[in-house]
Amino acid sequence: MCTSLTTCEWKKVFYEKMEVAKPADSWELIIDPNLKPSELAPGWKQYVEQHASGRFHCSWCWHTWQSAHVVILFHMHLDRARRMGSVRMRVFKQLCYECGTARQDESSMLEENIEGLVDNLITSLREQCYDEDGGQYRIHVASRPDNRPHRTEFCEACQEGIVHWKPSEKLLEEEATAYTFSEASKPRAQAGSGYNFLSLRWCLFWASLCLLAVYLQFSFRSPAFL
């Protein structure tokens, strides 16, 4: 049973994509808030998403903030004989820096961000569990630029010793350029069917009417002065 909308979305996207990537195997996704980095049972593999983008909401003071430094930890295991796999996942929280409460809050993510993150997870699964070439990992750029320095004292992942990897400026620039190009290539919505009375055509029309009115006015007055 899903504990939140974000959790449900993670599982939905993961199961759909794994059904396509590995239809012969059965995989499960488990949210584990107690997952520890580098503490692996025999046969388990680890993947850390270190540059995810998410939005946090403080349940105490209602402050919200965007972060491009969300860390997600995955532990993965594949039983080749039974063709069953398991992924344990933990999204690290952040403290609210406005009210200073010790309560750590979870992040929410857009569906398109979750899909990209699941693609990265499947790439790691292919490499570590199937010994395949998983392909290229996606670099995620926050929907809103965040130029503020990362405050490690408010980050749960930093407190547990996970060193964030910051993508190079070149990779970020390439990803941002690709995103901008894809957005520009989308067909724009058609303008409304209502008339725009400030358009050039209407301005010329009303100007013509005014000139005609002036002409007719002087035409009717001219015999009186003869």
Overview of this protein structure:
It is a single chain. With 226 residues, the protein is an alpha+beta fold. It has one domain. It has five helices and seven strands, in the order αβββββββαααα. It has helices spanning 5-21, 111-129, 156-159, 169-185, 200-221; strands at residues 26-31, 45-57, 64-79, 84-91, 94-95, 104-105, 107-108. It has a five-stranded mixed β-sheet, with helices on both faces. A two-stranded antiparallel sheet has the order 5-6. α1 (5-21) packs across α2. It is elongated and about 105 Å long. The termini are far apart. 20% of the residues are buried. The model is unreliable at 188-197 (pLDDT under 50).
Summarize the entry for a quick read.
The protein has 226 residues and is α+β, with helices and mostly antiparallel strands. It has helices at residues 5-21, 111-129, 156-159, 169-185, 200-221, and strands at 26-31, 45-57, 64-79, 84-91, 94-95, 104-105, 107-108.
